[in-house]
Amino acid sequence: MTTSMARKTALAAWIGSALEYYDFFIYGTAAALVFNKVFFPAADPATGTLLALATFGVGYLARPLGAFVLGHVGDRFGRKKVLVFTLLLMGVATFAVGCLPTYDTAGVLAPVALVVLRLLQGLSASGEQAGANSMSLEHAPEHRRAYFTSFTLSGTQAGQILATAIFLPVAALPQEDLLSWGWRVPFWCSAVVVVVGLVIRRKIDETAEFKRAKVAKLPVATLFRTHWADVLRVVLAATIASVSTIFTVYALSYAVNTIGLERTPMLWVGVLANVVALAAIPALAGLSDRIGRKPVFLAGCGACAVLIFPYLWSISIGAYALVFALGILLFGVAYSAINGIWPSLYGEMFSTEVRLSGMAIGTQIGFAIAGLAPSVVAAIGSAREDWLGVATFTAAVCALSAVAIATGRETFKRPTAELGRTTRESPVSSTGSVRTA
Q1: Which residues of the chain have pLDDT under 70?
Q2: A Gene Ontology CC term for this entry (predicted)?
């Protein structure tokens, strides 16, 4: 595979992922800042916040189901079909959120409609990263797979930057304007996301690896017969995404709603951490192409487990300088060691015939658990002094992910055509038939 084609695919994955996850993360920001007042005003403030964060987690619950469906489509009919469909679904669902009536206008129908649209967002996200990662990995030069696949995740960080940045002027609006129309603007901007994303994604070609692969009639059945242990390993490892959801959703809500810190500085913590991550992710991925996936990933797990304690403590005492410094170190650097590596680390566990299914199902089940983390820790830590329990929970998740990867195999030197196979396996599946380009 030529380097120029790898760069083109990585750029397309970066832009598409940024656009897709802009949609997904503006929901999280809105859930932390306004949904408790707009859709759940009948509840007391603490319960309203808990309910709003729970709707954020609902999107993650839909992702495992979507992973089974879109994984099958991607391995059976092509990665490109999945990438175009996910972008359309995400854009339409997100735009519709911005058009919803509030609880005061429509009563209980308003939060019900919100949950339905969040489910559709989750279905879309379930195939997005697995499709983009599979395509980037299969186009990449064998000695730089982590570097090129990492652009999907740096695109995700760019989406978070856009999602947070667009809320900066919105959050600065007077409270009445914010709750009446201001919060809707970021959701309406998804119309632009759809148009730009479709133009980019329609120009992407399928990979040569995919065209040469043997198509399985039921890729998911083949996956669980030949790679069930790797699926389980990815599920456990992917729960590390709890660090992201706790940082971007819970910590923001805790700072603003519980401690009483200003919205704008806390939003800037996320923006600056993600700016640092844009550079850190490809750099750390490139490091793993030289020294291996496991050392970099495990170092990231350990650093996140340690840094979450002083970060939440700094919020609890309202020390803005410490919040900024520790937030950037935690999410911009330490978590980037995980984000930069997992697209190649997980993808290299599976053969081409089941790669998209394996990555989608494994990550989305793990991410579904991570998506519920803000709700779980909100129940744990509903008061100013409860940050220690939340930090301990987060560190335990980091340890679980580290164990899952530490007990796996190292794959960074293995040829792409041999990924996901034992030395005794033939590259031709007994259940497959030749795929025609």
Answers
A1: 1-2, 42-47, 50, 53, 381-384, 422-437
A2: plasma membrane
CA–CA dist 401, 272 (Å, integer): 26
- Is residue 268 a part of any domain in this protein? yes
Residues 188 and 251 in one domain: no
Q: Which of 242, 197, 277 is nearest to 18 (CA)?
A: 197
Contact (CB, 8 A) for 12 and 201:
yes
Look up residue 288 and give its two tokens: 């793993």
Q: Which residue has the tokens 């790898």?
A: 6
Same domain? 305 vs 361: yes
CATH of residue 75's domain is 1.20.1250.20
304 and 356 part of one domain: yes
Domain termination site, one of 201, 236, 251: 201
Q: Examine the domain organization and report whether 225 and 189 are in the same domain.
A: no
Predicted local distance difference test score (pLDDT) of residue 425: 47
Nearest-angstrom CA–CA distance, 181 and 109: 19
Rg value, the chain, Cα: 21
Check residue 86 and give its pLDDT.
86
CA-wise closest residue to 299 among 280, 327, 313: 280
Domain match, 362 and 327 both: yes
- Could you tell me the two tokens for 171? 């959050």
* Judgement on whether residues 239 and 178 belong to the same structural domain of the protein: no
Whole domain around residue 313: which residue ranges? Answer: 219-407
Q: Does residue 293 share a domain with residue 262?
A: yes
Question: Residue 436 falls within a domain, yes or no?
Answer: no
Q: Are residues 188 and 226 in the same domain?
A: no
57-85 residue pLDDT tens: 777 778 888 899 999 999 998 888 888 88
Q: Answer yes or no: are the C-beta atoms of 46 and 382 closer than 8 Å.
A: yes
- Our count of domains for the chain comes to 2
